[in-house]
C-alpha cells in the first residue's frame, strides 16, 4: 500500500507496519501500540495526509495529552500555546516532513489541520476528520473515553502509545491500557502491536 504524501513511495517496511496501514484504511478506530521508533506516529500522520490528499476527509486533527515527563507546565514561559507547543513538536515534525512546511502552515491557518493538546477536544464532535491521539499511554481512562466519543460522522481515529512509557502520577491508571482491555476484539476497531523488530 503506497501513501499519497510528499515523500514518494512511502509504505510500511515491516509486516506489522503493513498490517497497521491496512487496518487504518479498513477501521474507524485504530490503535498502534509499541516501543518508540516503530513508526506508529509517523505512519499514522502519513495515513492522515494520504486521506486528506485523496479527499476522504476534510480535516486532520493531531493531539497529545500535555503530561510532562517530570516538569511542570506552569513553570514554562509564555501563554498556553507556547507552553504546550514542545509536547506537540513531534506531530509538527512528521506533518512538515510528509506535507511540506509551507503547505502545512497554510492548511493550519485555514484550520484544515489542527494540532492541539487533548484538553482542547472536550465538548467537540469531529466530523469528516482524520484524528490522531499520540502518546495515549499518558491519558487517564476518563480522557480516553472523552477522546473516543469525539469521533463523529465520516471520521477515522488512530491512537498511538507505548504502555512501557507511562508518565502519569503513581496510582493513576493509563487510559490506553484500560481501552485496550475493553476494546480488543470489537468490530470496527483494530489493534496493531509493534515490537523491537519494527524499529
UniProtKB/TrEMBL annotation:
Chief localisation class: cytoplasm
InterPro entries: P-loop_NTPase (IPR027417), PhoH (IPR003714), PhoH2-like (IPR051451)
The UniProt record lists the keyword Metal-binding: no
An example molecular function term from Gene Ontology annotations: ATP binding
Keyword terms, alphabetized: ATP-binding, Cytoplasm, Nucleotide-binding
Subcellular location: Cytoplasm
Domain PhoH-like protein span(s) in chain numbering: 10-199
Gene Ontology CC: cytosol
Record-stated family: Belongs to the PhoH family.
Protein name: PhoH-like protein
Organism of this sequence: gut metagenome
Lineage: unclassified sequences, metagenomes, organismal metagenomes
Amino acid at each position: 500500500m503506497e501513501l499519497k504524501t510528499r515523500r514518494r513511495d512511502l509504505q510500511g517496511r515491516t509486516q506489522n507496519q503493513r498490517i497497521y496501514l491496512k487496518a487504518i484504511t479498513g477501521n474507524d478506530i485504530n490503535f498502534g501500540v509499541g516501543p518508540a521508533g516503530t513508526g506508529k506516529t509517523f505512519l499514522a500522520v502519513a495515513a492522515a495526509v494520504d486521506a486528506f490528499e485523496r479527499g476522504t476527509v476534510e480535516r486532520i486533527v493531531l493531539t497529545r495529552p500535555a503530561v510532562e515527563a517530570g516538569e511542570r507546565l506552569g513553570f514554562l514561559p509564555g501563554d498556553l500555546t507556547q507552553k504546550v507547543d514542545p509536547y506537540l513538536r513531534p506531530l509538527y515534525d512528521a506533518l512538515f516532513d510528509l506535507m511540506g512546511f509551507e503547505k502545512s502552515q497554510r492548511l493550519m491557518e485555514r484550520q484544515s489541520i489542527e494540532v492541539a493538546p487533548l484538553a482542547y477536544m472536550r465538548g467537540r464532535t469531529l466530523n469528516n476528520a482524520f484524528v490522531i491521539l499520540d502518546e495515549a499511554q499518558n491519558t487517564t481512562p476518563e480522557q480516553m473515553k472523552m477522546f473516543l466519543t469525539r469521533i463523529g460522522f465520516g471520521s477515522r481515529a488512530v491512537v498511538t502509545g507505548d504502555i512501557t512509557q507511562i508518565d502519569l502520577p503513581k496510582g493513576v491508571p493509563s487510559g490506553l491500557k484500560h481501552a485496550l482491555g475493553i476494546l480488543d476484539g470489537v468490530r470496527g476497531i483494530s489493534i496493531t502491536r509493534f515490537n523491537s523488530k519494527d524499529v
